[in-house]
Write a structure and sequence with these properties.
Elements: E1 7-10, E2 13-16, H1 20-31, E3 36-39, E4 55-56, H2 61-65, H3 72-82, H4 89-108, E5 128-129, H5 134-149, E6 152-154, E7 157-164, E8 170-179, E9 182-189, E10 192-195, H6 204-210, E11 219-220, H7 228-235, E12 240-252, H8 257-263, E13 269-271, H9 287-294, E14 301-306, H10 308-317, H11 337-347, E15 350-353, H12 356-363, H13 367-383, E16 404-420, E17 427-429, E18 435-441, H14 461-482
Helix pairs in contact: 1-5, 1-14, 3-4, 4-14, 12-13
Length: 494
């Protein structure tokens, strides 16, 4: 393409990606005196952040109002202990120290936070700040605040390459904007660039290359994101850190939230393809950890088993699983449960049978093995003691009332975490751990802040890091801009 077809523009800060991290970065940069342009490949803002429920924070105004003790020091140490110190303590400390003020910042944008709920029973401290309206409301508030501050947005625009000078300093971004069948190429000169493109959850090639937990058949629950931000960063010399971590969860039932809730109800039992139990089913209260046991099973699938008595209790009273799925207990009374069972039985994801032999045949297990598993478990229920997994006796409910039901469950993941190596200022580092001038990164494109198992004990960590790292990146990018001479004209539209 001839150079005359390339439009040249200028601004202070270019942000690649309009998810939670990118929006926060653009807003923080603008609030600190810079003009920001956000490039977003999709038609709308939000990314995977739009699907989140809440974010982590310590010592927030909400926690203080509700008299919840959530010490930054205590939570920092909890995170480092959980990660066995395999994450960068300075990055996590910067995040946790910023997090309480970020809730204040979000409240100033009009977000309202109600009571802080646990992600799982007996969680301490309570860290999960869920705004009214959840992720969509958060994104709406950030987009509106960006618009009020004069942030420029260019949707359906793909960043292709980071521009550099002869010394390797970042000088801007080359991008392509789509409009129908037409494409427009342009270059934006900028004093700082922030990468916040959301990982590589839909890039199977990268997943297979970097993630030992990923395998074909694993269900991706996020939006299409292919890792272009990480690619662009490595092309200019960025080092890699923590790449391959996926925010995995399971067991997951495909296609029906009511059946998924039932599948991970602690009164059910879970068996693998051999018909053997492999976990204390109460672990399903934290599916980010129970998935590790599932990934050890043949084909990384399992079957949740229950009987007619369980089914009727669910219809009458609702499930007791994963209370975070709904704050309204009335909402978990699953009136369409029986209909969902029949629909998914036709689809092949559910088996309803009068005998365990029929269930075993459907699973592909030896009928004698499955029957032995059921008999053993019912014996544990009778004696009120699970000799293998020490399952809480309050959930030891025998399966004796036909018809029997089996739900086929999978491992799933919400997105990737890790890739670009950063420091606590969200500056991108090269192979010698030296910041690449003018380049920053935020959110799940970055590594060093989350271990290979998502730390749900600090509930809301992924969204929390997106928003907080975005703020930190935006503030530091603006600080760099303020130390440079003005670039000249700024673009307000692309």
């Amino acid at each position: 393409r001839k150079a005359s077809n390339v439009e040249n523009l200028e601004t202070d800060v270019v942000v690649i990606g309009a998810g939670g991290a990118g929006l926060s970065a653009a807003l923080a940069a603008t609030e600190n005196g810079s003009h920001a342009v956000v490039l977003e490949e999709r038609r709308v803002a939000g990314g995977n952040s739009k699907m989140a429920l809440g974010l982590f924070a310590a010592e927030s105004p909400v926690q203080k109002r509700q008299k919840i003790h959530a010490s930054r020091d205590e939570l920092f140490k909890m995170a480092m202990d959980f990660a066995n110190w395999k994450i960068d303590p300075r990055i996590f400390r910067a995040y946790v120290n910023k997090s309480g003020d970020t809730i204040r910042w979000l409240e100033s944008k009009g977000l309202r936070f109600g009571d802080i709920h646990p992600l799982f029973p007996n969680q301490y401290p309570l860290t999960w700040h869920c705004p009214e309206g959840a992720g969509p409301a958060l994104i709406e508030a950030l987009v509106a605040s960006c618009a009020d501050q004069g942030v420029s947005f260019s949707y359906q625009t793909t960043a292709k390459k980071l521009l550099t000078d002869k010394n390797g300093n970042i000088t801007g971004v080359q991008a392509v904007k789509r409009k129908g069948n037409q494409k427009k190429e342009f270059r934006i000169a900028a004093s700082s660039v922030i990468i916040a493109s959301g990982g590589f959850g839909s890039n199977k090639r990268m997943l297979k290359k970097y993630s030992h937990d990923y395998a074909d058949g694993m269900i991706y629950r996020g939006i299409p994101i292919k890792g272009e931000g990480i690619r662009m960063a490595t092309e200019v010399g960025a080092a890699i850190d923590g790449i391959g971590t996926i925010q995995k969860s399971g067991p997951f039932f495909r296609g029906s939230l009511p059946l998924w809730r039932a599948a991970i109800d602690p009164h059910s039992i879970w068996v693998n393809k051999r018909g053997e139990r492999f976990i204390d089913e109460v672990a399903g209260y934290n599916p980010f950890e129970s998935v590790n046991a599932l990934l050890r099973q043949p084909d990384r699938i399992c079957f949740s088993l229950f009987d007619a008595e369980f089914k009727q209790r669910v219809i009458d009273e609702g499930t007791t699983s994963y209370p975070s799925m709904s704050f309204d207990r009335e909402d978990v009374k699953l009136k369409d449960f029986e209909k969902d069972l029949l629909v998914h039985a036709q689809k092949g994801n559910v088996k309803i049978a009068s005998t365990w032999d029929e269930i075993a045949q459907w699973i592909g297990a030896d009928p004698d093995v499955l029957q032995a598993t059921i008999d053993e478990y019912n014996g544990y229920c009778k004696h009120r003691y699970d000799e293998i997994f020490d399952k809480d006796r309050m959930y030891l409910t025998p399966l004796r009332s036909p018809p029997y039901i089996a739900l086929k469950c999978y491992s799933a993941f919400l997105g990737t975490i890790g890739g670009i190596k950063i420091n606590q200022h969200m500056e991108v580092l090269n192979g010698d751990d030296i910041p690449i001038p003018s380049l920053y990164a935020a959110g799940v494109d970055t590594g060093g802040w989350e271990p290979d198992t998502y730390c749900a004990r600090l509930a809301g960590s992924t969204l929390g890091f997106a928003i907080n790292s975005g703020r930190i990146a935006g503030e530091n990018a603006a600080m760099r801009v303020s130390k440079k001479p003005a670039n000249g004209k700024q673009t307000n539209s692309i």
